[in-house]
Amino acid sequence: MQDEYMQVVSYLDSIPQFMEGYGVDRSEAMLSKLGEPEQNFKMIHVAGTNGKGSVSLYIHDILKENGYTTGLFTSPHLVDVRERIRINGEMISKEDFTTFFKRVKDVDDGLGGGKLAYFDYLLGIAVLAFDRYKVDFAVMETGLGGRLDSTNALKTPAASVITTISLEHTAILGDTVAKIASEKAGIIKNNGTLIYLDGRNREADEVIKKRAQECGCRMELAYRQDIINYKNEGNYIDFSVSNRYYNNDCFRINTGAMYQLDNCLEALMVTGALNAQGIIDTSLDKTRIALAGACWHGRMERIRDDVYVDGAHNPEGITSLVQSVPYIAKDKKRVLLFSVVSDKNFNEMARIICDLHTFDHVVVTQLEGSRQLDADIIKQAFIDNGISGVDVYDKLDMAFGHAESIAQDMQGILFISGSLYLVGDICRLCGGLR
Fold first, then answer.
1. What are phi and psi of 386, to 5 degrees?
2. CB 3.0-4.6 Å disulfide test: which of 7, 22, 231, 423 passes with 309?
3. Helix-helix angle 177-184:202-214, to 10 degrees
4. What is the three-class DSSP state of 387?
5. Where is average pLDDT lowest: 69-83, 375-389, 394-408?
6. What pLDDT score does 372 carry?
7. How far is the CA of 156 from the CAs of 42, 45, 56, 191, 280, in angstroms?
8. Which parts of 361-410 are beta strand (E)?
């Protein structure tokens, strides 16, 4: 089975991430040929620029802790492709992954061969797995955009959720926040339910609300002021929520990342709304247990003593990262190991890091692959923004060893960020995920 599974992974790695046409059209054809297994479970659909993986995990864990059989479909993965498909928190087995791949491959061959992209295959495998194990709810994260994304072939979500929206993938989704918001808003369904955290970006807010009104959608808006107080202790945050679903109710999340408050609030709004509609029945006590135990790998995650990885990979994500670092490092020195892929706005990311003077030392390296960006170019971005003392290592293992040594000499904290690919490579170096 191991050999057969590795052959499947090798095949998937060999096919394009994108194909001619739209993902939603390809997946509609695929799901029809598979017998529409997505009709056999309820779905919660999550789109956005940042935070959608974390929101998806929080929703999944709340439902699981409250006794529901729950599937989770996310992307990308850090170490193992099976991270993308989980049932009750456990990765799909290699045997199931291989079995369901074969069914999707048969469909692809029946469509003429080579018609499905990498993401389409994974969606098909996930839907077949969720049907096989009779999940009550599947929390599905979009891959790219929303309107034309493969996941939008699943037509009747119990709720649509949209997280933060900012400029990213502009060549595909559009070069303004309004255009990108319009694509993300494509997951909103006629007469459906939308959960959205209002007030983060006025331009996006207007687009999302207009689309929801056009669809006759039940719009459930959360606001940052719903979190009426919080206390960040570095390795956990205590906070309380007060709105139409929560009455100054207290919760804890096991992270010092401030951005997770927004993500957790949005997940709480989802379960609050679904409770109010009678679709689910959850308790506060079990919800508290779920949130306190939730861990989204690669998002301000401690992988060793005084070593944290965070998958921030765009300016908005980097802003959130540097806002959280002081809570975690407190009065300790801070070292940053940074790398980024070539199609990201790395100059703006470097500017944010430099302007906020968050780190005492910076080490840069480069990633492998077609999107590789030379480490010297990354270094120059920091120099152009005011940091001259930047160490450069072409090889990741040497960069990591050097950065960790500096942090230890300073008795400080090492933060690793800039790309989820970087986080995945670091996790491999450290022996996989905890």
1. 110, 5
2. 423
3. 30
4. coil
5. 375-389
6. 83
7. 8, 9, 17, 10, 16
8. 361-364, 390-392
Q: Could you give the CA distance from residue 107 to residue 317 in angstroms, rounded to a whole number?
A: 38
Helix (H) or strand (E) holding 416: strand 413-417
DSSP, collapsed to helix, strand or coil, labels residue 134 as: coil
Per-residue pLDDT tens over the stretch 11-33: 999 998 878 889 999 999 999 99
Q: Identify the H or E element spanning 218.
A: strand 218-223
Q: pLDDT tens for residues 203-235?
A: 999 999 999 999 999 999 999 999 999 999 999
300 has a pLDDT exceeding 60: yes
Amino acid at 134: K
Burial of residue 178 (number of CB atoms within 10 Å: 0-12, 13-18, 19+): middle
Beta pairing class for 307-310 and 301-304: antiparallel
The predicted-structure confidence for 238-253, as pLDDT tens digits, reads as follows 999 999 999 999 999 9
Q: What is the DSSP string of 33-75?
A: HTT-GGGGSEEEEEE-SBSHHHHHHHHHHHHHHTT--EEEE--
Q: Which residues pair with 124 in a beta bridge?
A: none
Q: Please, which residues have CB within 8 angstroms of residue 133's CB and are 6 or more apart in sequence?
A: 69, 71, 87
Token duo for residue 7 = 């052959």
- DSSP letter at 356 equals T
Res 433: pLDDT: 58
Give CB contacts under 8 A, 24+ apart, made by 33-40: 33/107, 33/110, 33/111, 34/103, 34/104, 34/107, 34/124, 34/127, 34/128, 37/127, 37/128, 37/130, 37/131, 38/127, 38/130, 38/131, 38/153, 38/154, 40/131, 40/134
Give me the residues paired with residue 240 across strands. Answer: 229, 250
pTM reported for the whole predicted model: 0.94
- Compute the distance between CA of residue 275 and CA of residue 282 in angstroms, rounded to an integer: 7
Helix intervals (H) in 174-258: 177-184, 202-214
| Residue 382 identity (one-letter amino acid) | F
For 116, 198, 263, 357, the CA distances from 47, given in Å and listed in that order, are 21, 15, 12, 32
